[in-house]
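Sharing a chain and its predicted structure for anyone who wants a worked example. Both blocks are below, sequence first, tokens second.
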Amino acid sequence: GLVKLGLYSELARRDVVRTKALIAEDGFRADLEGIRACRRVMFSRLDEPSFRKIIEKSPDFYSLSNCRDLLFHAQEHRFTIEGIRIALEECGLRCEAFILPLHLDFESFGRQHPVSDGSLNWKALQAFEEANPDAFASMYFLWASRF
């Protein structure tokens, strides 16, 4: 069988991590009033780059339940490309397909990093993310199976 995994990117969530730290410093609660107050403060502090980026780029910011998940989640695990590779290997899983964001030119990525055996070029994928740090802003998505 196959399992579809959705994992947060350490690199792509750097602004979320910074914002969560600032929220914790300000002591906002994860309830209706706390989330609304937090969003008001974020709008008033658009000079903070992390706030501005989340407000401008994340549709989750504008829904209370999604904002709670985005900025007030009690426990969040983030991964690197190499961390995913290691975790899959430790669990006896093989990546069958890494789903790449549609808005990027992956035909040229495939031409630049061809593989002959059909396996994923993890180092090339890591280099790609480093060159495009927001490529996996939503999540990494991949299909895996036991090997």
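Comments welcome. The chain has seven helices and four strands.
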